[in-house]
Amino acid sequence: MARILITSxxxxxxxxxxLGNLVGSQLPADLYARFQRGRGNEVMFLCATDEHGTPAExxxxxxxxxxxxxxxxxxxxxxxxxxxxxLSFDHFGRSSSSQNHALTxxxxxxxxxxxxxxxxxxxxxxxxxxxxxxxxxxxEGTCPNCGYERARGDQCEECTKQLDPxxxxxxxxxxxxxxxxxxxxxxxxxLCQSQLKDQLDAWIDSKKDWPVLTTSIAKKWLHDGDGLxxxxxxxxxxxGVPVKKGDADWPGMEGKVFYVWFDAPIEYIACAxxxxxxxxxxxxxxxxxxxxDKGAEDVKYVQFMGKDNVPFHTLSFPATILGSGEPWKxxxxxxxxxxxxxxxxxxxTSQGRGVFMDQALEILPADYWRWWLLSHAPESSDSEFxxxxxQQSVNKDLADVLGNFVSRITKFCRSKFxxxxxxxxxxxxxxxALIDELTTRIRAYEGHMEAMEVRxxxxxxxxxxxxxxxxxxxxxxxxxxxEDPERAAAQVRLxxxxxxxxxxxxxxxxxxxxxxxxxxxxxxxxxxxxxxAAALSALPAGHGFTVPEVLFAKITDEQREExxxxxxxxxx
Length: 572
Ligand SMILES: [Zn+2]
Known about the structure:
ATP binds at residue 349. The protein is an alpha/beta fold and 572 residues long. It has helices at residues 19-38, 54-62, 67-84, 98-113, 197-205, 212-223, 260-278, 283-290, 310-324, 357-363, 366-375, 387-416, 429-450, 454-475, 477-483, 485-506, 511-520, 532-535, 557-566; strands at 3-8, 42-49, 91-94, 117-127, 132-133, 139-142, 151-152, 169-173, 181-191, 231-232, 234-235, 244-245, 248-249, 257-258, 299-306, 333-337, 340-342, 345-346, 383-385.
């Protein structure tokens, strides 16, 4: 049994995510986790909310809530929606957890011991009215270049000129609007990533099986221009992990916190400790996933993320781990995604454009979305959600192909043989041909799933459903029954067993439909079909079943038009 550690990029806390976010990491990660569990492997699937940083503070202020309370509420909401989409995390943690505080401080201490952290004195804008330092992007003023009055301290959005906050004319706080600002000196810690360049280079070179796209992105960041730069890991904020060296205070860094980019990926690890603590497990139980000196040597670690996150996962986080000098498990495979666009434009959280996860579940069950999103995953290029395509895909693949097969065979059986698997007859050459085709296709499906080729996997699964339909169409038990009821019985027996086979194979994509089918078949045999012929005899003659409700309802033109209108504007 293989042991597979899976993490999905952790979503930021400040709001509900849209379907583009979902298909960019959490959903394909869930597909892979479910597949590996289905194959009988041991899986640890972790995700969490990313809760620190100024955007969380500002979102909390906007909601008129203390930031800790705001994050707790948003975490509960995101967690509930994840359950709605059947995302099967072993734990959905929080980067603000005490476990992540301790581990982040631990890593900082180890990096300091290794001489990889240096102090830098910087000038930063302090707002008296807000009682805090302001990050560059939270200072607004008039652009010296084009006169735009709402230019940000890091860049003018109008003329795209890169700016320093001190360049702005009439600068003011974007938080409070106050102009009572002052440039002050402040001290920050920098992680000396430049010193880790050779180690990172060698590590990336050792990844012979990574896609070229991934290694080339990493190499570009590592070598282009001045190469990998040292990076600030602290901030003058209240909300975050207090700066400490392990358990000890860090003289001169009082009142400061670690920068969110530093603590967020450490939560991948801390999340496992959260899982252990929440489930009465020991430290050894989570460390066997993360420490190569404590059992993680044979673990395969796979990360899922959007393409914009690749440099971060190939350089920044590995720099933290390598720099610590400790034997932490590092990533074996990265699976990254392009963007999903929405109906001729982009999904936009800030503009509320597109379908958001909570809204999606209000109008249709999760499986409809899971199937469309995964079968159209933006793998080799961006892909686009349109309501027409969604309607067509659901109606054809789910309703016409899979749903119709289930409905025909169960209803025909009930009317001619009653609600149990019929006895009599034998499987003949036609059935053997189907078994041969299914065997070939199922092995191909496994190969695509193992390689995390999401679209190819969906295509193969669909072809497996189609093969059953084609068999049923040509076997035509409803005609055969009149002449040779024994033969029809064998055909129906095969068909009912095929439903169970489909339920097992389809679980990674449409887990709720799998549950419905297994309940209707009165079976809990979810064993993966290593031997297809044996799998198609799993339900013996006499085994009772019930005809399931309509598995997938078709989307009508009226519904499609209504949703198209409803989601065309801005989210209120
Ligand atoms: Zn400008």
